[in-house]
Specification:
By secondary structure, the protein is an alpha+beta fold. Helix content is about 40%, strand content about 15%. One of its GO terms (molecular function) is ATP binding.
Amino acid sequence: MENGIKRQLSDSDLAKLVQRAFGGARILNSALELKDGWFNSAYVLTMEDGMKTVLKVAPHNAGGTLRYERNMMEAEVDVLRHLKNTDVIPVPEVYYYNNSAVEPEYFIMEYLEGQPYNKIKDQLTDLEREQIEMELGRYNRLINDITGKIFGYYAIQDKHGTCWWEVFRDMMSDLLADARDAKLALPAADEEIMGLLDKHRAALKEITTPRLVHWDLWDGNLFVENGHITGIIDCERAIWGDPLMEYYFRDLAGRPPAFMEGYGLHNLNESELERVKLYDLYLALIMYIECYYRKYTDRNHIQWASENLTQCWQRMS
């Protein structure tokens, strides 16, 4: 999506980044911008020898990012490498990562065959969708089975902690501060929103083991081909937290039965449902607040984000 923070690179810029990554071993032949992303810039790079790769370039940081959006590319590269080492979770190989102060932060990774699930989902039969979503449930469970020692965003070590309730409360507080900075009106006062976390403290405190949460595993970050998943991308927002934060547990996704079966979770208890609603609200707030930080130009999306947040808050009340 077009916005005010994504970088636009010329063919000359791209050739320089390829030279930095591969030296003389690879020479850029052509590049195609991938315009669907909301944060980083991305390009399919085809080399003179026919090799295809994908380049991701971090955005401008000129007031267009939220408090939690720090060190995100470094986190994505680290998580991709971690998942790749499992040999069972389909993620692209990272060929090169650069975080020097001289050039924009970027990395080059393996090109994935297939198409984003959101692009072809409506063309598939019910059986094909069920097969893909059951497979997604299994992969998502494998990701969540990876445990850590602390809670918090993978990328933000100075915000890590040992109590999930406290860490999530801090995450929400930072988000509300972002809204205040942008002078955005929310459906409720900050005190009301934070009060919900206090009200559901016991449910949040049930989470005692930090688990790796992809957290952005929506249909656009899932590549499929011939009825199967070929790759999972965009791990930059990964969290050590509660697996119920995953996208397919959101009200927006509808918790499809096939996904739930593949994941191995069929019924949510009362505490789990309480947490699901809190995570729905957290995501709805982000999707609304980021519209103004990103300087989105799609008025329909901005209107949808506003209405989605209002409806989410009404479900909490």
